[in-house]
Amino acid sequence: MIYLFLKPDEYLAAGRLAQLKAALGDPEMADLNTSEQVAGQTSAAGLLGQASMMPFLAARRLIIARGYLQRLDKRMAASKSTDSAAHQEAAQLLEGLQTLPDTADVVFWEEAGVDKRRQLWKGFMAGEQRVSGLQALVKAGAIKLEEWHTPDSKALPGWIQRQAKAKKTPIEGRAVMMLANYVGTNLRQLDNELDKLSAYARGRAITADDVKLLVSDASEALIWDLTDGLSQRNGRKAMRALYELRRGDANPFYLLTMIARQYRIIIKVKEAMAQGMHNEYDIAKAVKESPYPVKKAMAQARAYSFPALEQAMEQMLEADVAMKTGANSETEIDLLVARLTR
Fold this sequence. Notes:
The protein is an alpha/beta fold. The protein folds into three domains: 2-146, P-loop containing nucleotide triphosphate hydrolases (Rossmann fold), CATH 3.40.50.300; 156-214, Helicase, Ruva Protein, domain 3 (Orthogonal Bundle), CATH 1.10.8.60; 218-340, Up-down Bundle (Zinc Finger, Delta Prime, domain 3). It has 18 helices and seven strands. The chain has helices at residues 10-22, 27-32, 44-52, 68-78, 85-97, 119-122, 134-140, 156-166, 173-183, 187-201, 208-214, 218-231, 235-247, 252-274, 280-287, 291-301, 306-324, 329-340, and strands at residues 2-6, 34-38, 61-66, 104-110, 124-126, 129-131, 143-146. It is elongated.
């Protein structure tokens, strides 16, 4: 079978590739019957030749071509004629794929995708002969298109729950949402975090407190707790969040940097809201941030005017200068929090 992975999520595609390799049987034999081809170091003849070889003490062979189609697509686009070497290679490949033996599995892993407006996808005329493009081969079933896309922010909690279930690890709903918010759509990191949390929980359900304790990006949520207190002018709440961060050995310069980052996000989000955007996912895409900080910033932005936000940034700059010129860093952070909640 021939598989086409277009713009796949690395983690999902790697998992699918592992399934195909496992289907080859004995791991040692699987290694002997697996061939990886890299764009720029192979050709249509080389790929087809590898796929046509008889398996060694196994039922199938697996050929993995990374980025080959994209490179061929670009070469064809740069050609002035369908008589070019690139077009001849494409014709050889597209026709050869249709006659491969059943003993071959070929995977085209195209991280950057293939331009569906161009000839490699749509097909082209070579002399008087029509060469079917990838689109026609997919439609005819000669190629199986598998689009392993990263789940979006709305679908991510469901993916985490399914992954935890596959690991036979119970997890609370709040913990799922925290993981989605803290880690985002990095599926490989999410999988690693689930393994770590599962080992820590030892059979019981993973809780929100477990995530808060063990997930490395959880400190960002505590920073948002701090800025929640600042935006509400609630000095007690802000100082309590600051204490929690200090208990985790947060460096004063790190704290100042993170507070400034959150305020910059608030400014970007407030600007987007001023332009008529009110959906957290639309704003997240526009300002290039994940939905979690955007949702927090949307609530906080309403508590500030633009001049107040500019003043807050100036106060942070003053604290930064003071800390770098000999003032006690801990005291300066305390004073900054007091000024921002005044």
